[in-house]
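idk why but the lab printer keeps eating my pages so im just putting this in chat instead. protein + 3-hydroxy-3-carboxy-adipic acid:
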Amino acid sequence: MRSLAILDSTLREGEQFTSAFFTFEQRLKIARLLDAVGVEFIEVPSPAVSPEMRRTVQALCEIGLSAHVVAHVRCVEADVRAALDTSVFGLNLFYGTSAELRTYSHGRRIDQLLADAVPLIRLIRSTGRYVRFSAEDAFRSDLVDLLTVFDAVVEAGVQRIGLPDTVGIATPRQVERLVALCTERYPQVGIEFHGHNDTGCAIANTVAALEGGADCLDVTVMGIGERNGIASLSGLIAQLYIHYPELLETYDLTQLALLDHFVSECLDLPIPFNMPITAPGAFAHRAGVHTKAVLKNPRSYEVLAPADFGLMRSIDVGSRFTGRHAVGHRATALGLRLSNDEVCHLTQALRERAECGSLNQEEVDAFIHSWWEEGSVCRAERSGAGIALREGNQEKGSVTWEP
Ligand code: HCA
Ligand code: CU
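predcted complex ->
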């Protein structure tokens, strides 16, 4: 079986998300939750950032996580030494290789950046630590430059090379091809991919990297990161669950929602409505056609089983699109025994009411109760004439609603 490592960078890339801030305690709790989910790597910022960051990184190394803590470090000797001064498992080095970053970011030529990086890689390897080198902005880099850099860093002893799509520009096909090329050229090292979401392809690109041969995929909780972030942990897990379930065998998927909720609380940022698995509506079904089928067999419209993630599905009954199966099901759950005709009438009444605006679950329940009570009055009034809707139907042997 092929192996896959998920690297979560919520504590590094994630805190580069605009207005994000995690306290010391929150960082520790996020790391524990990530560990409970089962990610292999937790990426943290460079300990050289500040004494407080150094304290945090060291604390994260000492709380007994199974995940490997790796520091994201520039190819600058002081930064590398600051990271080596902590107990991190390894260092994730990065250096911009595209013309854009070489010109406007660090201003170094390819030969100059290699002169910086190669001795540092050797230094890190001499301490026995893990080292990965990422060519920042790989997908806007000239292929010859990129391979020149990777040839040198692989030769210097890195265990993994990283291909970040720093500006979210790549298509899945480009990612798969470049990763496949590197997998073939550098069979002795692992390949990592880190995909930004500027054009909405982060998760697709991350899965394409896996299919191209990458063995380490970067994510953050809810996809937070610079600008509009990178691939989300939930999004990647949703894809793996369906297409590569064997790669999730060591994961505890029931911890995922707790993690997303905790980070969402820390940032005072709701989980996005379209977040796979953990969005509030990820397992909510609405239109009559859908709810009828889902009530018969959830697999009709659910490819992810909510229970596997410790979650529950919901049936939204309060819309103008509602159907009698959903309404009958809800009425039964409320303890009412309705005939088929009654369910049809109730559904019609509910739909008419929902034309003025959708109802939430509480409003639906209140509507059903008051509809039922009004019906009882009518039934009582009419009972002398023998035309009470419900009892009358039952007398005639009409079928009681069965969900
Ligand atoms: C950054 C850039 C980075 C690095 C990714 C990596 C990117 O914020 O420093 O080290 O693989 O997207 O290129 O996040
Ligand atoms: Cu990034």
